[in-house]
Amino acid sequence: MNVRRSAAALAAIGVLAAAAPATAAPSPKATVPAGLFGKGDPTYDGVWRQSLALLAQHTAGEKPADQAVTWLTGQQCADGGFAAFRADTSKPCGGKGAQADTNSTAAAVQSLAALGGHDDVTGKAVTWLKAQQNKDGGWGYSPGGPSDTNSTSVVVGALAAAGEKPAELRGKGRTPDEALASLAVPCDQKGGGALAFQPDKKGKLEANADATAAGVLGALGKGFVVEPGKARDKAPACASDGKATPARLADNASAYLLGAVAESGHLMSAMPGAENQPDFGNTADTVVALAADGWTEQAKKPYAWLEKNAAKWAQQSGPAAYAQLILSAHAVGADPHDFGGTDLVSALDKLGPAPAKQAAAPEKKTTEKSGNSVWWIIGVGLVAGIGIGFLFSGRKKNRP
């Protein structure tokens, strides 16, 4: 969920067709506007990281700065969609301008819906998202692109956050649930229970942990924020019991994720050249997914691993990574202010405009100042694939 636009966004714009995220180190050509979280080049993830940062602050009980919220709402295109980043909002989207995409739009909707008071913005965005639904019931990253699990799931979460009933949406034929079911790996096959990002060129479904974590939320009609709930007792197992209901799809996917983290407590990177490295971002997504499906106790093992190992990753990766960890803490009922000795909320606050309640306190002025000096750099190691979750995460292949 973090630096999430992996190959999806990058391949979609022709920058990178493999699966590695773009280096987000500051560039002489990249101007980071006031109000935006992070200091890295926002070209591929500006709206995404801002949406997650604001959502995480809100979830942690803070009121995001008006400047930060205004920056996000100001990124909306005239037709209601959001592009990854608009350097010049006076120029229209489309054509040679920034291209709206479903992921940026859905993330913005989830964030602004949670904050409240932005019905005009979210209403236009929801209308735009509905218009992009494919005949198979799902959504692709770009309008008209082939459906994928991640994009379908983040849109479902956005529609639910906005008060819609995505399970009933048949814009051009099928429902989102049907689209997700078509991407589920059968239980009797390798990776059974998991979801694929997209079918490969031969139509084969290959298990993808990032897509699977996203798919759990999509099947359950939930977004990034999962409230801690009553834990279920018996761990799930992949099973085929006739009709592939959303609940069964989610349980099967959860069973796959639990198996993937059973031994080490974390996922391994699937990025080419980085297969022996842990995947921090998608492990955080797994925590949220398992908790969303009621497997809160089981989710505490990967969360405990993150507590011991993920603080440095977040420091290197920036605001969206801190947001991911805050949301994973929230999902299991943990305190994001005490994440293995790190105050995730304070660390996130330093990367952008101080929250409203902090800005009013004189003693917090130094925090805001230090936040302006923080440079968000995704190092070469992360480019190689040290798991960056929903943002540069599983959009790995088959991008137009």
UniProtKB/TrEMBL annotation:
Q: Where are the transmembrane segments?
A: 374-392
Q: Does the keyword Thylakoid apply?
A: no
Q: Which Pfam families match?
A: Prenyltrans
The record's listing under InterPro entries reads: Prenyltrans, Terpenoid_cyclase/PrenylTrfase
Please list the residue ranges annotated as the Prenyltransferase alpha-alpha toroid domain.
50-157
The highest taxon in the source lineage is: Bacteria
Q: Which Gene3D superfamilies match?
A: 1.50.10.20
Leader sequence residues: 1-24
Gene Ontology MF terms: catalytic activity
**Keywords noted in UniProt:** Membrane, Repeat, Signal, Transmembrane, Transmembrane helix
Tell me the protein's name: Prenyltransferase alpha-alpha toroid domain-containing protein
UniProt lineage:
Bacteria, Bacillati, Actinomycetota, Actinomycetes, Kitasatosporales
